[in-house]
Amino acid sequence: xxxxxxxxxxxxxxxxxxxxxxxxxxxxxxxxxxxxxxxxxxxxxxxxxxxxxxxxxxxxxxxxxxxxxxxxxxxxxxxxxxxxxxxxxxxxxxxxxxxxxxxxxxxxxxxxxxxxxxxxxxxxxxxxxxxxxxxxxxxxxxxxxxxxxxxxxxxxxxxxxxxxxxxxxxxxxxxxxxxxxxxxxxxxxxxxxxxxxxxxxxxxxxxxxxxxxxxxxxxxxxxxxxxxxxxxxxxxxxxxxxxxxxx
Length: 247
Prior knowledge:
Layout: H1 7-23, H2 26-33, H3 40-53, H4 71-83, H5 91-104, H6 107-119, E1 124-127, E2 143-147, E3 150-157, E4 168-174, E5 185-191, E6 198-203, E7 212-223, H7 234-246
Helix pairs in contact: 1-4, 5-6, 5-7
């Protein structure tokens, strides 16, 4: 296989490299040059810079704000971002939830969520693991019971990365129904900051960083319109999301 880049791709690399030199805010640039770590606020600032340029989600379809780049350009862009030590953007919205909503969401969900994921206005986290449902995720017990047009949630998620900074959480929940345990899982989107009954408690890793959280739900109400896919179809949504995360 010939891995030689075309002149057009080499020109694109120079365009990206030059833009990165000029676009990086002074404080971020100074930390990047020193190979220091970035805090969440700095990563969000960089997200906004990329979004203004139209480069926040290179892998999204153009109709939803993607770049239309081929795979080689996406690789070059990522390579130059790493070489410049640019802040890493949170993957939950851009790489996981956004692509899933593009693939399976309703038009209303696309209009509501995608623009704010793309702009960095709303941050996301992932609510999959539970104290007794990690490697055996299908054993999750966070209950979601229907009450009118809402689901009432009771239970706990754990190892919820960056939940203390997030505006929204993507959830796998246990709904009432027949079938095996995978067939009774539903996929929901929940407002972390503005839903009564949701409590986020960070805890320290062995390295002393607050990277993870326990997230509790006590009679927390989530509209049914925030369900992605059919009720009981959450296992398929979860696998699709992980597919986007891995690729």
